[in-house]
Q: What sequence folds into this?
C-alpha cells in the first residue's frame, strides 16, 4: 500500500548507454566510477561536503518554502553518474506540489532525481549527465511544505549507498552540531511567513520581559513543589549521629530511606529525644481533596524530635522528599511544621522513546527526578513509527527488527533510518528494553510512588511493529509455515488505500479487520499484565489512538469484515476499534487510556455510554490550539464523562523550543515557544485563562479562545484528574539534549500539578478579559 519504494534509481533502464558512458570515463584514471567498488562510497562519504540552507519561507503564504542542498566535491577525484544514492531526512514533505512522484522528481538545477522513501527519509540519485569535478559543487533547489524556522528541523547523519556496497554516513553531516546547516539570519528564514509576529528575542526584549517579574524580591523556595502550609519557626536543629530513626513495621522502607539520608541507625524503640518517628495518621487532608489523601503528609520538627506522619506509603515517601529538600546545607533542619497534599491525583510526565531511544539508566534517572518533585505518573510511550522499544515474549521480531534502524530497503533486518539516525545497524535510533529491563524500571518506579503507564500506540503510529511483523511473515513463509507467518500479521497486503500521515508515512496503521491483529493485541496486553503483576499490577493501558491518517478503505479484509459485522463503512472502523479496546481492557479490569483523538469522529465525540463495557476511559487532551477553536476540548471531554489529563501542547509540550529562536531545539507546531515561565504560569483550573498569543505571535480574539464568544463551562470538574508534561523526541537524540528540554520545565510542571497558587484564584473571567490578553498575571508570579 501507499508509496512504492524504489530499490534503485531507474537509470538502470539505460544499462547499455551507461556502460558506454562508463567505459569512456575509464580512460580518465582519476574518476570515481566503479559501482562495485566500496571506494566509491567511501570517497563520497569522505569528500562530499553537504550544506543545507533555508532560502525563504515567504514564497507563497504558508503553503511552501524554498531551500537548497549544496554538495561540494572536496576531494581530488571527479564524481560522475553511477548507481550511488544519497539518503537524507526531511521532516517537511519535499516538492509537495508534485507529490506523489513515484518515479522520483527531477531536480533540473542539480541533475539529480529526488525520491520520497518513507516518513522523513528521502534520497537523491544522480542523473546520467551528473558530473562533479574536484572542488566543483552542485546546488539542488527544493520546495518543501509549510516552513522551516529552526535549525533542528534538519536532521544529521545523511548517508550514501549503492546496491551491493556498504552504506556510509557522509562525514560532513555527522554528529549533533548541525554545522552543515546554514544560518537563519534573515526574517524570511527565522519567521514562518511574512506576517509572523515572532522574531528572536534580543537582550533588550528579554530584559524587558524579565523585568516585569521583579524577581529580586522573591525568596528561594525551600521545597518544590510548594507545600500547602509551611509554618517556619525560628531556629534549627542539627540531626547528627546522636539521633536515631524509630523503626516502623509498616513503613520500614521510608525509615530506611530517612536513616540513609541522615546517616543514622534504625532502632526499634523510641528514645527520650533525638529521634525521627514515623507515625500513621488517618485524618490528614489539608486540602480536603479525597483523591489525594494517601499522598498527604505532616512533618513536625522540634529541637528534641521529628515526626513524620501520613496515612499511607505515598505520603510517607513525599515527607521524606520534603525532608531532603529542607535539609539544604546538609547539616541542620529548620524548626517548622509542614502540612502538605497535592491538588491533583495525576501528576505525569510522558516520554517518547520511539523516535529516539533512551537507555534504561536514563529512564531511571528521570524517574528519580520525578520522585524528587513528587510527580507520580510515568507515561511511557514505547512504540512509534520509528521504533518498537519493548521486548514482547514470543514475538522477538518486534524488537530484533522493529527496534533497530539501518539501511535495509527490504526491512528484513531492521526498519529504515529516520530522523537523523544514519545507516549503520544498531546506530542512533536503535535500542529496546528487555522484559527484565522493563521490570527493573517498574520496580524502580514503584519504590518511588510512580505508576508506569505503558503506551502501545495503535492503530496509527505503528509502522515499526507493522514492518517487524511483515518481516516475520516473510521469514515463516520462506520455510512454508503459513500458520506461524500469519499468526500476528497486522497487514492486509491487498489494501490499496493511499494515505499520507503528517509525518509522511503511507503504511503506519495496523489493519484492525484481521483476526491476527486481535490475536496480537491480546498477546500484548497479556504480556504487559505479566510483566507488571508481581511489581505494580497493570492498571492503565494506553493504546494511543492518535493521528490515524486513514487506511482500510481499499482493504478487501475490511470489506469482508464490515459486511460480516453488519457495519456500514470504514468510517465506523475507528470507533469499532475503540469499542474493541474497551472490551479487551474491561476483560482485564484495566482503565483504558487514549489520546483524545481516538474518541471522536470529525469534531463529534463518541458517546461514552455507547462504549460496550469499559467506560473507565482516560483521555489525554493535547490539542488546545486556540486559533483552530480547539481550546475547549478538555472541557468537552470532561463534560461528556471522560476522565481528562490536561496535556496541553501550548504549555506542556517540552519538545517545543524555549524561545522563538531558530537556534533553539524543538518542533514548534503548537506554539512558537514554551519557556519555563509559561509552563509555571499555566492555570489548570481555568484553561481559557492560559490563552495568550497565537502560534503566529498575534493576540487572540475572544472568539478564537472561546468559539462564538461563549466559554464552555466545566460541568464535571472531578473529571479533570491532572496534568502532564510531554517530551516527544524527534529532535532529541542525546541524553544531554533530553535534559535540556525536560529541565527546568519539568519543575514548573511539578509545581502546577501539586500546588495551586494564590494567583490562580481568578475572579470572574467576564471582568478580566483584557487582563487575560495582556498577560498581566505574570506580574503576580
Ligand atoms: C570494479 O572493482 C572490482 C573490485 O574492486 C573489480 O573486480 C572490477 O573489475 C571493477 N570493474 C570495473 C568495470 O572496473
Ligand atoms: C588524491 O587524494 C588522495 C587522498 O586524499 C591522495 O592519496 C592522492 O595522492 C591524491 N591524488 C592526486 C592525483 O592528487
Ligand atoms: C517584597 O515583598 C514583600 C511581600 O510580598 C513586600 O512587603 C515588600 O514591600 C517587597 N519589597 C520590595 C522591595 O518590593
Ligand atoms: C524494622 O522493621 C522491619 C519490618 O518489621 C524489619 O524487617 C527490620 O528488620 C527492622 N529493622 C530494624 C533495624 O529494626
Ligand atoms: C470537604 O469537601 C466536601 C465535599 O467534597 C464538603 O462537603 C466539605 O464541606 C468540605 N469540607 C471543608 C472543611 O471544606
Ligand atoms: C477469523 O475468525 C473468525 C471467527 O473468530 C473465523 O470465522 C474466520 O474464518 C477467521 N478468519 C480468518 C482469515 O482466519
Ligand atoms: C450507511 O451509510 C449511509 C451514508 O453514510 C447512510 O445513508 C445509510 O443509512 C447507512 N446504512 C446503514 C444500514 O447504517
Ligand atoms: C464488546 O462486548 C460487547 C459485550 O460483550 C459485545 O456486545 C460487543 O459486540 C463487543 N464489541 C466489540 C467491538 O468487540
Ligand atoms: C449517549 O447515549 C445515551 C444512552 O444511549 C443517551 O441517553 C444519551 O442521550 C447520549 N448522549 C448524547 C450526547 O448523545
A:
Amino acid at each position: 500500500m501507499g508509496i512504492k519504494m524504489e530499490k534503485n534509481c531507474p537509470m538502470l533502464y539505460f544499462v547499455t548507454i551507461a556502460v558506454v558512458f562508463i567505459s569512456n570515463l575509464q580512460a580518465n584514471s582519476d574518476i570515481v566510477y566503479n559501482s562495485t567498488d566500496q571506494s566509491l562510497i567511501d570517497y563520497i562519504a569522505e569528500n562530499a561536503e553537504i550544506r543545507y540552507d533555508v532560502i525563504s519561507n515567504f514564497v507563497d503564504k504558508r503553503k511552501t518554502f524554498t531551500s537548497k542542498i549544496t554538495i561540494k566535491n572536496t576531494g581530488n577525484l571527479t564524481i560522475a553518474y553511477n548507481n550511488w544514492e544519497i539518503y537524507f531526512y526531511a521532516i517537511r514533505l519535499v516538492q509537495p506540489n508534485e507529490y506523489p512522484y513515484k518515479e522520483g522528481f527531477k531536480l533540473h538545477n542539480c541533475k539529480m532525481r529526488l525520491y520520497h522513501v518513507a516518513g522523513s527519509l528521502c534520497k537523491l540519485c544522480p542523473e546520467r549527465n551528473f558530473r562533479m569535478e574536484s572542488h566543483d559543487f552542485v546546488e539542488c533547489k527544493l520546495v518543501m511544505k509549510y516552513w522551516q524556522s529552526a535549525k533542528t528541523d534538519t536532521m544529521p547523519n545523511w548517508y550514501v549507498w549503492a546496491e551491493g556496497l556498504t552504506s556510509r554516513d557522509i562525514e560532513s553531516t555527522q554528529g549533533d552540531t548541525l554545522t552543515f546547516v546554514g544560518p537563519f539570519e534573515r526574517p524570511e528564514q527565522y519567521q514562518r511567513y511574512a506576517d509572523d509576529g515572532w522574531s528572536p528575542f534580543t537582550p533588550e526584549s528579554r530584559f524587558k520581559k524579565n523585568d516585569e517579574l521583579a524577581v529580586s524580591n522573591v525568596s528561594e523556595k525551600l521545597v518544590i513543589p510548594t507545600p500547602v502550609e509551611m509554618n517556619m519557626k525560628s531556629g534549627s536543629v542539627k540531626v547528627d549521629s546522636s539521633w536515631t530513626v524509630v523503626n516502623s513495621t509498616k513503613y520500614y522502607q521510608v525509615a530506611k530511606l530517612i536513616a540513609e539520608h541522615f546517616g543514622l541507625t534504625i532502632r526499634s524503640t523510641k528514645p527520650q529525644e533525638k529521634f525521627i518517628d514515623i507515625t500513621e495518621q488517618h485524618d490528614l487532608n489539608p486540602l480536603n481533596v479525597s483523591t489525594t489523601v494517601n499522598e498527604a503528609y505532616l512533618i513536625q520538627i522540634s529541637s528534641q524530635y521529628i515526626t513524620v506522619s501520613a496515612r499511607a506509603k505515598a505520603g510517607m515517601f513525599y515527607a521524606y522528599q520534603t525532608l531532603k529538600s529542607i535539609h539544604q546545607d546538609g547539616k541542620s533542619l529548620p524548626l517548622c511544621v509542614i502540612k502538605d497534599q497535592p491538588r491533583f491525583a495525576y501528576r505525569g510526565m510522558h516520554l517518547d522513546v520511539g523516535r529516539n531511544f533512551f537507555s534504561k539508566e536514563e529512564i531511571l534517572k528521570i524517574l528519580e527526578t520525578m520522585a524528587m518533585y513528587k510527580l507520580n505518573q510515568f507515561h511511557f510511550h514505547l512504540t512509534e513509527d520509528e521504533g518498537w522499544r519493548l521486548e514482547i515474549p514470543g514475538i522477538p521480531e518486534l524488537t530484533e527488527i522493529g527496534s533497530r534502524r539501518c539501511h535495509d530497503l527490504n526491512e528484513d533486518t531492521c526498519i529504515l533510518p529516520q530522523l537523523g539516525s544514519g545507516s549503520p545497524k544498531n546506530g542512533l535510533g536503535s535500542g529496546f528494553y528487555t522484559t527484565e529491563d522493563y521490570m527493573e524500571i517498574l520496580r524502580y518506579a514503584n519504590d518511588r510512588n510512580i505508576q508506569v503507564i505503558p503506551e502501545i500506540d495503535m492503530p496509527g503510529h505503528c509502522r515499526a511493529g507493522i514492518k517487524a511483523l511483515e518481516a516475520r511473515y516473510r521469514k515463516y513463509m520462506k520455510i512454508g509455515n503459513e500458520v506461524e507467518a500469519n499468526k500476528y500479521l497486522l497487514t492486509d497486503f491487498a489494501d490499496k488505500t493511499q494515505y499520507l500521515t503528517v509525518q509522511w508515512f503511507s503504511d503506519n496503521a495496523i489493519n484492525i479487520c484481521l483476526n491476527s491483529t486481535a490475536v496480537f493485541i491480546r498477546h500484548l496486553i497479556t504480556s504487559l499484565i505479566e510483566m507488571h503483576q508481581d511489581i505494580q499490577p497493570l492498571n492503565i493501558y494506553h493504546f494511543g489512538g492518535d493521528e490515524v491518517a486513514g487506511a482500510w478503505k481499499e482493504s478487501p479484509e475490511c470489506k469482508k469484515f464490515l459486511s460480516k459485522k453488519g457495519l456500514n463503512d470504514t468510517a465506523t472502523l475507528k470507533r469499532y476499534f475503540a469499542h474493541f479496546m474497551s472490551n479487551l481492557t474491561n476483560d482485564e479490569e484495566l482503565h483504558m487510556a487514549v489520546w483524545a483523538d481516538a474518541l471522536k469522529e470529525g469534531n463529534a465525540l463518541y458517546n461514552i455510554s455507547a462504549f460496550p463495557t469499559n467506560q473507565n476511559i482516560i483521555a489525554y487532551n493535547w490539542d488546545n490550539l486556540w486559533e483552530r477553536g480547539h481550546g475547549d476540548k478538555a472541557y468537552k471531554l470532561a463534560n461528556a464523562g471522560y476522565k481528562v489529563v490536561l496535556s496541553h501542547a501550548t504549555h506542556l509540550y517540552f519538545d517545543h523550543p524555549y524561545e522563538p529562536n531558530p537556534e533553539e531545539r524543538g518542533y514548534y507546531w503548537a506554539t512558537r515557544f514554551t519557556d519555563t515561565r509559561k509552563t509555571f504560569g499555566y492555570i489548570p483550573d481555568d484553561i481559557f485563562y492560559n490563552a495568550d498569543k497565537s502560534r503566529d505571535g498575534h493576540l487572540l480574539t475572544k472568539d478564537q479562545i472561546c468559539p462564538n464568544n461563549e466559554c464552555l463551562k466545566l460541568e464535571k470538574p472531578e473529571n479533570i484528574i491532572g496534568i502532564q508534561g510531554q517530551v516527544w523526541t524527534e529532535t532529541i537524540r542525546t541524553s544531554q539534549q533530553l535534559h535540556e528540554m525536560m529541565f527546568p520545565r519539568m519543575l514548573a510542571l511539578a509545581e502546577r500539578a501539586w500546588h495551586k497558587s494564590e494567583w490562580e484564584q481568578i475572579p470572574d473571567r467576564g471582568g478580566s478579559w483584557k487582563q487575560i490578553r495582556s498577560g498581566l498575571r505574570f506580574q503576580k508570579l
Observations:
- The pocket of 2-acetamido-2-deoxy-beta-D-glucopyranose (ligand 3) is lined by residues 217 (CB under 6 Å).
- DSSP finds 21 helices and 31 strands in the chain.
- The CA atoms of residues 351 and 453 lie 11 Å apart.
